[in-house]
Design goal:
Blueprint (H helix, E strand, L loop, with lengths): L1 H26 L3 H4 L7 E3 L22 E4 L2 E3 L7 H6 L1 H5 L4
Antiparallel strand pairs: 1-2, 2-3
Length: 98
């Protein structure tokens, strides 16, 4: 009988401990959500870009595609597909700005 209470008590403790961990994880914001580097590319509504060629593909910039702010400059793209790669690694593509 004593073993049954120990097993039941352990199961309750594990269940309560797991619930506490889940609630603590939800309360804390992730590091990515709280900090952003100043050079992070951010998407904005279309503005006049500083470039005529897409830094990702090299094609002509389409003025209807969203722009990205990067290091104080408005960057344009040829299509929506090129925005995500630029945002993922802006340093790689910034050297292609023309």
């Amino acid at each position: 009988m004593k073993k049954m209470f120990v097993v039941a008590g352990a199961a309750v403790a594990v269940t309560l401990g797991t619930a506490a961990l889940v609630s603590r994880a939800e309360d804390k914001p992730s590091a990515a959500a709280t900090t952003a580097p100043t050079t992070k590319a951010t998407t904005q509504a279309s503005a006049t870009p500083v470039n005529k060629k897409c830094p990702v593909s090299g094609d002509a910039v389409d003025p209807k595609v969203k722009t990205v702010q990067y290091q104080g400059k408005t960057i344009g793209f040829c299509c929506e597909d090129c925005v995500a790669p630029f945002q993922k690694n802006p340093e790689k593509y910034a050297k292609n700005l023309k």
